[in-house]
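pasting for ref
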Amino acid sequence: MAAALTAGGCAMPGTYDGPPRGAVHSRDLPADAVPRKEPKSRYGNPPFYEVYGKRYRVMESSYGYQERGVASWYGKKFHGRKTSSQEPYNMYAMTAAHKTLPLPTYVRVRNLRNNRSIVVRVNDRGPFVANRIIDLSYSAAAKLDMLRDGTSLVEVTALSYDEAPPPANDVPVRAPSAKPPADAVAATPQPPEEEEHQVYVQAGAFGDATNAERRYALLRSNGVSTAFVFEDDSRSPPLYRVRIGPIREVEQYDAVVSLLGDLGISDSHLVTD
């Protein structure tokens, strides 16, 4: 099981692991995965597992899952090898690896910079690299236009048939941020918009402007020159959001997250304009 769990999602960031470089024509790429109801895989879904000394707990349900972070991709080095679900990895299929989602789960992955969107089937475990939330197949990465850079800032949303998990120990279940579509038709992605979006790291949101200014001052005093306070008057009363950016490269995002961690700020997340 340990070997199966570590088989996927291991390509090192910054390395090219696909077919020869050059233009990839959209006509040569497969259609998106189509969500359908499937039983959980007999393999790759233990309650928890450990890789490189870190323990991961597999989610019982993908219901309501949505996260923003960094996507990477893996290619020919793993082509044909068994995934954590024991299916052979096909770099030309629309699949992905995730550390904790149930296998299989269908997810929509949206590139936050160019707004391209795809649907993939998660059938593997990984990536086991800091700040990476999903590892895409070669074809999936090509459709998001992230082959050249190797990584990209993305939003991942579960498109599943899972029901809301029962409350644990009578603790109320928090409402999900995005309810999965009821059927596969609703999950069909729309044509991508090619305009570039600005991406920021939000380092706090406060109802009191004074608290926002304190967070802003903390960031500026620690060398974050791109920090600013955004007054969100779409809410009443307004929220004061402390943001950093725009974030143009994954390396810049990694550095910001590392610094925020050193400052004890753990509730940061990516936002777009």
